[in-house]
Each structure stands twice: as structure tokens, then as C-alpha cells.
Hints:
There is one protein chain. This protein has about 325 residues and is of the alpha+beta class. It has 2 domains: about 1-175, Ribosomal Protein S5, domain 2 (2-Layer Sandwich), CATH 3.30.230.10; about 180-320, Alpha-Beta Plaits (2-Layer Sandwich), CATH 3.30.70. It has helices spanning about 75-90, 115-125, 135-145, 195-205, 210-215, 215-230, 235-250, 265-275, 300-310, and strands at about 1-10, 10-15, 20, 25-30, 30-35, 40-50, 65, 70, 95-100, 155-160, 170-175, 180-185, 280-285, 290-295, 315-320, 325-330. The strands form 4 sheets. A 6-stranded mixed sheet has the order 8-7-9-6-1-16. A 4-stranded antiparallel sheet has the order 2-5-10-11. Helix 1 runs parallel beside helix 2 (about 115-125), helix 2 (about 115-125) packs across helix 3 and helix 6 packs antiparallel against helix 7 (about 235-250). The protein is globular. It starts with a strand and ends with a strand. The structure holds ligand DP6. Ligand DP6 binds near residues 16, 17, 146, 147 and 287.
Amino acid sequence: MHSATAISFPNIAFIKYWGNRDECLRLPANGSISMNLEGLETHTKVTWDKLRVTSNGLPGIDSLTINGQSITGAGLQRVAAFLDLIRQMAEIKARAAVVSQNNFPAGAGIASSASAFASLALAATKAAGLDLSEVELSCLARRGSGSACRSIPGGFVEWHPGAGDNDSFAVSIAPPEYWPLADCIAVVSAKHKTTGSTQGHALAGSSRLQAARLDDAPRRLDICRRAILSRDLEAFAQIVELDSNLLHAVMMTSNPPLFYWQPATLTVMQAVRTWRAAGLPVCYTIDAGPNVHVITEAVEAARVADLVGSIPGVQKVLVAPVGGPAKLVE
Ligand code: DP6
């Protein structure tokens, strides 16, 4: 029995990943920048069984348990296909038992695929006897879920799109303590989204706006990176909100169109703009769901969380400071 356990954090993108140049390799159409979300963690234990076949002579299958529930079907298939990559790298035929837990509320609409595949990449390779570098781990995690490559390094992270499988990975641009920000996540709906990110990426190119969004991406990446490095909240707020608006413009104009917002989503967006105009350091960003990530300085997080929580339609607010890298645990 060879096992290892890893934890990692989800991340929130400031410059978003939307659309792939290569769906299978998950090579993104544009670079992206994010921060990890401390305190919302995925804990994953992987145990490789050395048996090549089960006692009745049939090949065994991988097993997956998430928050105590056994997962089969498409969820298990996605993980098994990812484990195939590790079987190839380690030259093993063993099957894996994967047991994963998220400490953040199930169905809170917080993307868990990033922390799921980041912790799985680290635990499964370690348990298979591989010792990958951070860059190699980031490339591998990307194959499970694109945004997972950004949950391998710590703090503020940039994913360089690269030209192929081995040079599309994420690196840290600043450690968590460099700029004490916090994400106050306004949970507007805990319902499971109808169109997941994987299907959404495939639709991106059907919007005529995607080409314009991609064309301008290097400029936005540059402004966002510089705003983080100079801790310039006003410049940061402008570019983060613009990038989120561009993402949703593409989603709403793809074929079929994707509408992720609920009425309360727009209420929070407008409140955030009003608060910023009144001097509060806040901005919003929204992923493929209705919940609004309200980014602020950590010292203001309690006040901002209270304000956000008092908006009608907001069910709860989760607060996450900047998180570190994926790591192995005992
Ligand atoms: C809108 O990484 O979840 O959150 O690779 O298909 O798993 P898959 O997609 P995923 O896409 C994330 C989309 C996004 C923007 C972002 O996080 O950059």
C-alpha cells in the first residue's frame, strides 16, 4: 500500500481563463491571474493498490469518495482518466482509492475542481513514488481542471498559457503576505450550476466577442500583475471588474448563451461599485455561477462581509484571505 495525503485551496481568478486552444490538453486561449483562498480547503488521500487484477481476475477500478459519498459515473471517469496520466508517468498499473473532503459547504457554489485536482495531483504522484517539481505538478493538475494548475503555487499566481503540454503552467508572482487581501464570497444560490465550466469553455469560441476579449488579454494581464505588485487597489479594481464583465459578455453572447447571474448577483455588483465610490477598497468578480466574490483588504473584511451579508438575496458570506501552495500532510 502506497498512500499520501495533500491539501490545497481553491482560487479566484482576477483575469479569467475561458476557452481552450486544445480541449484535451487544457491549453488555455489566454493567460490568467488568481489568488488562492485560505481556509477553504480540499484534503485528498490517495492509496495505490499494488494488485494489477482483482481476485476474480478482472482488472480493478479506481474508487472515489467525496465528503463521505461514493462517486461513480462521469465524476469517477474524469478522475480515472486523470489517474491514467499518473499511471503512465510512474509506469504502474495499480488502481487508486481516492478519498477527498472539502471543508467548505457543499453546494456553496465555490468551484472545487481547482483544489480537487491540485490536491489529487500532489497526493497521487507522491503516493506513486514520483517526486515532481512545482512546474511539473502545475502542468499535471492543469490536465484535470485548467484552473487547478493555479492552486499548486502559493499566493498570487499567474498561469502562462504556453505553447504545449510542458510549458503551460502557473507560477507564484507574490507570496500570500505580500498584499493582505480577502475574498468575501456572497453566496446567492447554492444550487448546482446547469452548465459546468468544461462545457462553457467549449462554447467560448461561438461568441463573436471572444476574439476581442482574447486580443486584449495581454494588456489586462499586464495591468493586473502591476496592480498586484504595487498594491494599487484602485487600478486593480478597475481591471478585475472589466475582466469579469468581459467574461460574462462572452458567456451571454455564446451559442447557446449562458446566463449565470441571478437578480441578487447584480444587486451585489451595484452595491460594491457604490461602496467603492464612497471610499471603501472593494471590487467584484464572478465566475461561472451566480455568487459574487467581493475582494477587499483583509483589515476591512469583517465590515465588508457584514455589508454584503445584509443585501437581500445573499444567503451567506464566506471570508477567505490569500492562501499558500498545495502541500503534503501527514
Ligand atoms: C470561470 O478550470 O473550472 O472559473 O478546466 O473545464 O475544469 P475545467 O474548467 P475550470 O474553468 C474555470 C473558469 C472560471 C475562470 C477561472 O477560474 O479562470
